[in-house]
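@channel sequence for tomorrow's demo:
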Amino acid sequence: MATHTMLPTRRRISLNEHLPVDHRLSKVYRVGAGLMGLVLLAFGILGLIDEVGFFDTRGDTVAGLNTNGTLSVLSICVGLLLFAGMVIGGNFASTLNMVLGVLFILSGFANLALLDSDLNFLAFRIQNVLFSFVVGILLMVFGMYGRVGSALPHDNPYWRARHPGQAEREERVLSQAQLSARNEKE
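structure tokens (generated this afternoon):
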């Protein structure tokens, strides 16, 4: 006689589960994408105004950072991408912020390794590397806000997706309490 044990199944959580359209977390994702996009767009435009060569490894200083034409165009493109994330909002903006944040940090490390080499075609200097790290961390914070953490509130949609059984129990208790309160008023 064989006995079968029921093992609990773990639900796989996707970071792209949809938030309600008017959820307050969307504002944080939009503001983060917009602010970082504005900074990068301004830096890129100021770099292009200086008319520095596209692959000039000496570069020129703009707003305390070294730049060349390639870095300026790249900054404008990423800034516009972040503006698109700001307009779309929601999980798209959050995921975009996280992905670009990781890419900025990786870029910082890669360009740190290339600082004094002939392969430094973006004309990075140490201040650019530090800027890349700071922007990467800020983008990651803006993107992860309210999505990760050990103390998310129980009304958070990401907490609810990770704890469906407990969320359902809490919802039942809340609806029973509301029903009881309504019956007492009558």
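heads up for whoever presents: Residues 25-147 form one domain.
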